[in-house]
Write a structure and sequence with these properties.
Layout lengths: L9 E2 L8 E2 L42 E13 L3 H16 L4 E2 L2 E2 L2 E7 L4 E4 L3 H13 L4 E3 L1 E8 L5 E8 L3 H17 L12 E8 L22 H13 L6 E3 L1 E6 L2 E6 L5
Antiparallel strand pairs: 1-2, 3-6, 3-7, 3-13, 4-11, 5-6, 8-12, 9-10, 10-11, 13-14
Helix pairs in contact: 1-4, 2-3
């Protein structure tokens, strides 16, 4: 006599005789809501071909966010400062055809004066650091800002050369901001700003034949050095116009960029 398996359908008690009850399956798992994009770091594609030959200075690590603190400098190209920068950039590009503009978009220059080195935050450190930047910004007053002369700079691995303009009036106030940011940077074990900073805005860049050039970037045009006399010619033709009162600006806010998001606080505007 063969053994019967368990019934396919269970029956209720005699009071409900004849009523069939469907067998219960395993309980359904509830789907968790998706994580906010604020908590998810998207892995960027490190492809120099998408970025005019530029390469990432530090490899991407999940949960780590690139961060940069700066004072924005904005001027329409029709204004005195913007016009000078545009004419100077065109003059330099005529001598360095591979020079690319920085911050020039739709008739205006959107530049920045760095207050931190390239910095990296873990996800749990972001709010604490943003609050520290906010406290620094709101406890310092705005001031008049001027640019004085053109200079050449390079990044740390000498893979790019920059055409920059040095800050004149406002240097002491900028140094006060970087000094106030130092404890927050040390708290997250990041390097503080340079001990003798050259506060500046960068208006152009070109790939350089430095140690940062790799096989992935070798197909992009590079320069060994800015041609002799470019900086001297720019200062001769444009520096005096930079220093006119009509080209001066007001430093009004401090920004921190975390990933792709920018957070802003007005200087001296309290909490």
């Amino acid at each position: 006599m063969s053994k019967r398996g368990p019934p396919l359908v269970s029956y209720a008690d005699s009071d409900d005789e004849g009523a069939e009850v469907e067998p219960e399956g395993p309980p359904k798992k509830k789907r968790l809501p998706p994580l906010s994009s604020e908590l998810v770091a998207i892995t960027p594609a490190d492809n120099p071909a998408l970025h005019q030959g530029r390469v990432r200075g530090s490899p991407h690590v999940d949960g780590r966010w690139a961060c940069h603190v700066y004072v924005p400098v904005v001027s329409e190209t029709s204004k005195q400062l913007g016009e000078v920068l545009s004419n100077a950039f065109r003059t330099a590009k005529a001598k360095v055809p591979t020079l690319n503009p920085i911050g020039l978009d739709d008739g205006r220059w959107e530049l920045h004066i760095s207050l931190s080195r390239p910095t990296f935050l873990w996800t749990h450190q972001r709010e604490e650091f943003k609050n520290a930047v906010r406290r620094v910004a709101t406890s310092h007053q705005g001031w008049a800002l001027s640019l004085t002369k053109f200079i050449k700079l390079e990044n740390d691995d000498r893979s790019r050369v920059f055409l920059a303009v040095q800050v004149g009036a406002g240097h002491e106030q900028l140094a006060a901001l970087t000094g106030a940011l130092t404890p927050a940077l040390r708290a997250i074990k990041q390097s503080e700003f340079y001990p003798e900073p050259k506060f500046h805005v960068s208006i152009g860049w070109a790939l350089s034949k430095g140690i940062g050039v790799t096989e992935s970037t070798e197909n992009f045009p590079t320069i060994t050095e800015l041609p002799q006399g470019v900086i001297e010619d720019l200062n001769r033709d444009f520096a005096a116009r930079l220093q006119r009162p009509s080209a001066h600006l007001e430093a009004e806010e401090v920004c921190v960029k975390v990933g792709k998001r920018v957070f802003r606080w007005g200087l001296g505007q309290g909490t």
